[in-house]
Amino acid sequence: MEMSERLPAQLQCGAQLADLLEQVSTGQTKALTPHQIECPYCTAALNRLVNSWQDIERLRAEPVQPSPELLHRVMRRIWAGLDDWQVELRGGRGMTRVSTAVLSSLAFWAAAAAPGVRQVFQAQSREVGIEGPDRPKKRRQRLVSRENLRIEIELSIHYGFSALVVAEQVRRAVIAHVLETTGLDLPEVELTIADVG
Amino acid sequence: MDPDSTLVALARSGNANAFEQLVRRHQVRVFRIALGMLGDPRDAEDAVQETFLQAWRGLPRFRSQSTFSTWIYRIVTNRCLNLRRSRKPSQTVLWDQESGAPGPGELNEARDRLRVLRRAILGLTPEQRATFVLRHLEGRGYEEIVEILGISLPAVKSRLHRARLELAIALSEWK
């Protein structure tokens, strides 16, 4: 690359470099003013700015990839911080447990499919009685008894639907879906209707 | 509606697999912003990692006032701005030191020009650089940049104007 003189903020003809640059960066290089057509300073500056801008376009098009380990590093730390709470299911020979994360997902999809529901913001399984600061911080496996299990769902409903009717339909759908999939009869489903639209 | 809303809601419900999908979807763009802001791929990866962990922890408070992508861009931009402000000027940056095997003259020249451009971008103030990277390297719209940076539209335009001018003057000395 060879060096040439830096462009001044104001060209000898009085034109502002910033104005020419605005023209180049917005792709208006064909729409020249009568002055620009005649003026050698503007023409030269525009040519150089177009070249510079092409470099920016090239840089933008350059493929950029983080290392493949990045995703694993992020997820490893997330998994390490998760509690693994499980509920014991009634069954035949041997013990069957289901993670409360599975129950949350089942509740989420059942609620999302219920009539009148616009969007589910979250669905969480909780053990009643140990929330807030008493909740264990470290990842640990523990059994939650069915009696202490509570599903909490936050959602928005479509305008024009009765909140009470939608809530009851969601509650029934969640209980039925969890029962059908896991055999677990949920004692409590708590709903918050956070929005309507 | 935000195309990520279902995954966000599942992730907010504690579903780590859903969050993993969100990371997969957004990691390249988030990394590109961090790289443009910081210049060093290792620093950029660290910033991206901390960004997603902060997002995971902050999901219960995220109420979809903006899209997930805007929210995550805001987190990574703020993180990089804080890092850049606290970094000593003498610390080296690697983004402009990438070198490949020697090639034909034309290729070398193109590579040199990009190196000069990268160095010029890293010479902008952190605030100008954030605005420039979001607009011209990431292609975000003005309104979204307003949301990401939490400044007014005239402030975005003014920063962008100054950044482009600085770059044009710096780059114009190369034929």
SSE order of chain B: HHHHHHHH
Q: Which residues of chain A form runs of ≥5 with pLDDT under 50?
A: 132-137
The CATH class of the largest domain in chain A, by name, is: Alpha Beta
Compute the average pLDDT of chain A: 84
Give the overall shape of chain B.
globular
For this structure, what is the CATH homologous superfamily of the largest domain in chain A? Cation efflux protein, cytoplasmic domain
Can you tell me the CATH class of the largest domain in chain B? Mainly Alpha
CATH architectural name of the largest domain in chain A: 2-Layer Sandwich
State the CATH topology of the largest domain in chain A: Alpha-Beta Plaits
Low-confidence stretches of chain B: none
Report mean pLDDT of chain B, rounded to a whole number: 85
Largest sheet of chain A: 3 strands, mixed
Domain count of chain B: the total is 2
Question: How far is the N terminus from the C terminus of chain A?
Answer: 59 Å
Keywords (chain B): DNA-binding, Sigma factor, Transcription, Transcription regulation
Domain RNA polymerase sigma-70 region (chain B): 22-88
Protein name (chain B): RNA polymerase sigma factor
InterPro entries (chain B): RNA_pol_sigma-70-like, RNA_pol_sigma-70_dom, RNA_pol_sigma70_r2, RNA_pol_sigma70_r4_t2, RNA_pol_sigma_r2, RNA_pol_sigma_r3/r4-like, WH-like_DNA-bd_sf
